Amino acid sequence: MTDSSPKGDAPKSAPTAPVTQDVRTFPRKVEATDKINLVGLTRPALREALIEIGTKEKQAKMRAGQIWQWIYQKGVRDFDLMSNLAKDYRALLAEKCEIRVPEVVTKQVSEDGTRKYLVRIAGGHEVEIVYIPETDRGTLCVSSQVGCTLTCTFCHTGTQKLVRNLTAAEIIGQVMVARDDLGEWPKLGEANPPKVRLLSNIVLMGMGEPLYNFENVRDAMKIAMDPEGISLSRRRITLSTSGVVPEIWRTAEEIGCQLAVSFHATTDEVRDVLVPINKRWNIEALLEALRAYPKVSNSERITFEYVMLKDVNDSDEDAHRLMKLIEGIPAKINLIPFNEWPGAPYQRSSNNRIHAFADIVHNAGYSSPIRRPRGEDIMAACGQLKSETERARKSKKQIEKEAGLG
């Protein structure tokens, strides 16, 4: 679908990322060197790294601040361009350090403008990132692990075994890669008037469970929120968890971002199948942690993500039970039409059933937006992300057996 209206008709506040249907494959780069990668280091760690390569201790904090701004505010990857540093110091940095982000392997652009990037990280592993443009914002869906350990039966990523956690550099590097592609860094030496951000929001909803990689996720999001860099408000960052209860409190205290929970069921019996982590921390334990979260983090409300599965969790009884469960929690309910994938053991609920469910939620006083599937034509929709290179696909029979349907 191509927008044929003239550019002048678009709202002035609307992001204008180009919409083109394409798939691009990029040549493989040389493997990383033994140089210190400055991307992903916290400010104190960056200072220590600079001291390690020979920076005087009295100057290290100032130098770290200067380099930080070059990397995260201006998007510079070449030390030679860091004009407020002495030439001999730039040479030292180039000899001992590097500014390395994930390597883009392929880029796909959906008919609706959604972009999916397959990026390669250290060790040759690959993860996916998705950018979703909207009228008033642009959201980047970031991955935190290669694969996933949770095996949620409705999720394509969950059919892929966990390979490893991503580093803070690999997580914040995904944001930098997307900003590269969107042309969102300022042009050096030119006056750059303020403009509406193409990448205005981050959601940790890609591959993996963010709270099983807490420290790296925290450090990466602290970089994203730093006012002298990418400078995103904590309210523009949403972390989605399947319910790692012990880390929910830490998230409130150490990150303070918005929280979404992959809820998807109203009884432990059903949630044990859909979200197996429920066997460890059941609905009661999860809700207890969620009730405290808005108070600790100053978040307005929790987002409950609820994928709509035909004849599994979409009845009127489920809707009423959900309202009873979340009573007293500031919340909104994101209803997600199931995005089908090869071998999936479930079907999407009908539009009539989804809207009937939404009406019950709305009449109970909660916001109940129905998420519009984006990027389905390039397998970039919610629950569809998976790096094919990391494992042999499970058979449909095996997936159905794990879902309790075989």
Structure report:
The chain is an alpha/beta fold and 406 residues long. It is built from eleven helices and 14 strands. The protein has helices at residues 43-52, 57-72, 87-96, 168-182, 214-225, 245-254, 268-274, 283-297, 316-325, 351-363, 396-402; strands at residues 22-25, 36-37, 97-98, 103-109, 115-120, 126-133, 138-141, 145-146, 164-165, 201-204, 237-241, 258-262, 302-308, 331-337. The protein has a ten-stranded mixed sheet with strand order 1-4-5-6-7-10-11-12-13-14. Strand 4 and strand 5 (115-120) form a beta hairpin. Helix 4 (168-182) runs parallel beside helix 5 (214-225) and helix 6 packs parallel to helix 8. The two termini are 39 Å apart. Mean pLDDT is 84; it is low at 1-30, 380-387, 389-396 and 402-406.
